[in-house]
Amino acid sequence: MKRWSTLIGRVIMLAPVRTVSTESRRCPMLTVQPCRGMVDEKFQVIIKNLLPNQEVTLHSLHQSEDKDFWEAFGHYISDEHGTVTVAKDESLGGTYEGTEQMGLLWSLRPVPGSRSALRLRKMNVLTPMVVNISVYNGHLSQGFSQTSALATTVTERWYMAPGVQRVDIRENGVRGTLFLPPGPGPYPGVLDLWGGGGGLIEYRSALLASHGFACMALEYISPGELKKTDVDNTYFEKAYQILQNHPLVQKDKMAMLGLCFGSVITFSMTVYSSVIKPQCCVCISGSHVVPVNKCMFEVFEDIKKLMGKVQENEDKHIVTREIILPIPSDPALKADVGRIKCPLLLVNGTDDQNWATNESAEDIKMMMEKAGNRHLLTVLTYPDAGHLIEPPYTPHFRATNFLLHDMKVKVVMLWGGQTKPHAYAQEDSWKKILAFFHEHLYGSNVKAKL
Fold this sequence. Notes:
With 450 residues, the protein is of the alpha/beta class. Helix content is 20%, strand content 28%. It is built from eight helices and 22 strands.
């Protein structure tokens, strides 16, 4: 890995191009525009001044906050003018193939020799994701750190737009971070709930604030310390009220957004709470089974009783989707979604190996149809997408390390999904989530910044 550190150190930050090769009079020019932008904003990568029909490899390299290196690459052939335009030219091989403008980001993977089952997550949203993009002569698949690039440039991808405010929330026992958009406000509010992995995850909230929503990332489970938490329904109600009562938040324009176990909470709070009355909800890769009507410790104790249904695949990866199957017919074992009175958007992948989301969605449809509120439900189902449907251009993680709560045991959890379809699901669903929030929180006359 020392070679990569040396390579990164030699790159001048935000320099438009650094030419390395002196083998030819032709000096390849590599540009990435915008060189500084949001993570959900597409960039344009163009190489000029190559030889006609020259084989080249475009390579991206990122060092994570955990000091691991991630790379992606595509194989291209320049046109008769010696130009490669990634947005319209096909990659013939590499970590992605076809015409994929953002393949250099969504197909990132750990470099050979890295630790196993890694997951790339941005924990400090006050700094950008820095990606070095280089062009090499020929179609390479390895040895990038030992090969001189024809040209190199640097791009910054941000989760926090200029002017977005980040506010620590430590109030009435609630732990979270509030992100406020630029401008005088007031703004619609979104309570953002991540899954059972725990911790305070801020990057999705920062990105939503960059699109005009006051968004609060809520921590409700401390990783590895489940026995010490007494979080119950009142905790989420207090968090909702803290967000709702902020002077820059519109009290009557509130939403909830949940991923995985965060969706379980979103379903239960929307159905049963007398305090939480959102104008709309989004549930990503979640289920209405296992309603949250007790403290988190007791809920996870109930889930542990189902662990006999957990499976291992041939790679020793943990598959948990069976634990709630078959979907129970007993109404007491699932949230009564027939009582939901606001628009609800479900986002699922057909290859989710962590949670039985598609079976849950079918049951939710039937329950809401029977109750007469089916018109409030929209379901997005993405073929071959997995469980971790995140903001666009986030790399796909089929299986990663995971710490089982209360057991202090690290396993490799199988999330599922195939890289290219999963990347499509993330890009498409993000646009539709933003449009959904704009429609129901701002009004249909306000368009999302897509």
